[in-house]
Amino acid sequence: FDEHTWGALRQVVADPVQHTVWMFSDENVFEITIDREARNVWRLYLDDGDYTLAKQYATTDEQREMVLNREADHYFELGSYEQAATLYAQTQRSFEEVTLKFVHHGARNALKSYLIAKLESMPPEDMTQQVMICTWLT
């Protein structure tokens, strides 16, 4: 809000009957139009650590990917490796990055869970990736 152009802001008022918001300056009155209010709600929930609601409000694949990755990282940092493994398996995060995280922390059971979940979710035509995962499992 440019004070020099519009005057000093004096008040913002919501009209609950008309569902409008008004802003008053020394020289002007403005009606505030609220458009697509919920479009970034998912990010607010994500920043608060409420992953369930963040997933619920995420509307694009990129948003859901961001929520799943952040939730998986959260559980990994807490040492809840099995929960993190389940979530990482639902993401597009690099296979090598995730497996090495579990290896470096000695989380063999979580690694196995992650590998099995990844293997189960792969399309049949992804033979090279399936062979690589089976090699890790042996």
Secondary structure blueprint with pairings:
Layout: H1 3-6, E1 9-15, E2 20-25, E3 29-32, H2 41-48, H3 51-57, H4 61-78, H5 81-88, H6 95-104, H7 108-121, H8 127-137
Antiparallel strand pairs: 1-2, 2-3
Shape: elongated
Kindly state the number of beta strands: 3
Helix content: 55-70%
How far the N terminus sits from the C terminus, by CA atoms, comes to 63 Å
Mean pLDDT score, rounded?
92
Low-confidence stretches are: none
What order do the helices and strands follow? Answer: HEEEHHHHHHH
**What is the strand content?**
5-15%
Note the main sheet. 3 strands, antiparallel
Query: What value does the Rg take, in angstroms?
Result: 24 Å
- The tally of helices reads 8
Please state how the strands of the largest beta sheet are arranged side by side: 1-2-3
* Helix-strand category: alpha+beta
Please give a structural write-up.
The longest helix is centred in the middle third of the chain and has 18 residues, at 61-78. The protein has helices spanning 3-6, 41-48, 51-57, 61-78, 81-88, 95-104, 108-121, 127-137; strands spanning 9-15, 20-25, 29-32. The chain is of the alpha+beta class and 138 residues long. The protein has eight helices and three strands; from the N terminus they run αβββααααααα.
